[in-house]
Amino acid sequence: MPGPSPEPPPFQITADPAAAGQRLDRFLADAIGTLSRSRVKTLIEEGRASRDGRVVREPADPVKPGAEYTLHLPAPEPARPEPQSIPLAILYEDADLIVLDKPAGLVVHPAPGNPDGTLVNALLAHCGPDFTGIGAERRPGIVHRLDKDTSGVMVVAKTQLANDKLTAAFAARDLDRAYLALCWGLPTPGAGEIEGAIGRDKRDRKRMALVTAGGKPALTRYRTLQAWAAAVALLECRLATGRTHQIRVHLSSRGHPIVGDPLYLRRIPAIAKSLPQPARTALLDFPRQALHAARLGFSHPRTGAPLSFQTALPPDMQGLLTALDAATA
């Protein structure tokens, strides 16, 4: 068994006159560049910062010009998930982040029932032994998630700075995110908003539901991109909030559940009978929710440069559209 990981080399910074009076946590975060201010603040409070050899524990301590500041990082703790060689479709990667096209069927994070074979296991193997990760652990920063059977674009943080800034961007909805959903029926109007608080379904803890008390506000904007009679529609959905199963719950609440949804499609829609047999069979046999995270745009957490990524429908969803086109031509 390998021994514990050694602490990485400390950061040593000499304060120049322009830094006089700045908060210590802000000064160190700016000077280091790879740690967020909140992370530096925590390290200072843990007694890992010193000025001219004397420990400083106050993050707001004013910087003294000419003083030498040292910040010690703790040794990375091994991540509980083990690295596993799993192919990944990487769209973009740099020192701070990875953008990938997650396939349907891949669980994002280990959990009961899915202890391994997850995206986190794959990322640990992809990043290799030199990956320092988030906080004091060798782990990727999962700043947002896609359900196991939802495909599409995801961004993952590789540094604490990226983790903090991307998490804040998702919380503030300061990004561009669009999904493609194939739903039963034709929403009326063809474009609009669905609003309703979402909370845990009291009758089935695996499901979420619209609730009148105790839920979180949720707003989904949608527009119809294509329709096949009044039986099936391809929608673009944009999230003004980011609640668990939000698109699935909102569309289901309007009587337009997503094709193949194992949780929110409880019975075969009567409108399916209006479709020719080949298309009806393809839709009813689809083994997952027909939902794809098609576009993700955000500002780079370090440079501020705009980044945007878009992926085509995966083959299984594209096959549904092809079957519908052929059957209704």
**Which regions contain 5 or more consecutive residues with pLDDT less than 50?**
none
Proportion of beta-strand residues: 25-35%
Count of helical regions: 7
Apparent shape: elongated
Structural class: alpha+beta
Number of strands: 16
The helix-strand sequence is EHHEEEEEHEEHEEEEEEHHEEH
Q: How far apart lie the N and C ends?
A: 64 Å
Using only CA atoms, what is the Rg? 24 Å
Determine the mean pLDDT: 91
Give the assembly state of these chains.
single chain
As a percent range, the share of helical residues equals 10-25%
How many strands, what sense, and barrel or not for the largest sheet?
10 strands, mixed
Structure characterization notes:
It is a single chain. This protein has helices at 24-32, 37-45, 119-127, 160-172, 246-253, 277-284, 315-328; strands spanning 11-14, 49-51, 54-56, 68-71, 90-93, 97-102, 141-142, 151-157, 176-184, 191-195, 198-200, 208-210, 219-228, 232-239, 291-299, 306-310. The mean pLDDT is 91. Helices cover 21% and strands 26% of the residues. By secondary structure, the protein is an alpha+beta fold. Strands 5, 6, 7, 8, 9, 10, 13, 14, 15 and 16 form a 10-stranded mixed beta sheet that branches. It has a 4-stranded antiparallel beta sheet with strand order 1-4-2-3. A two-stranded antiparallel ribbon has the order 11-12. It is built from 7 helices and 16 strands.
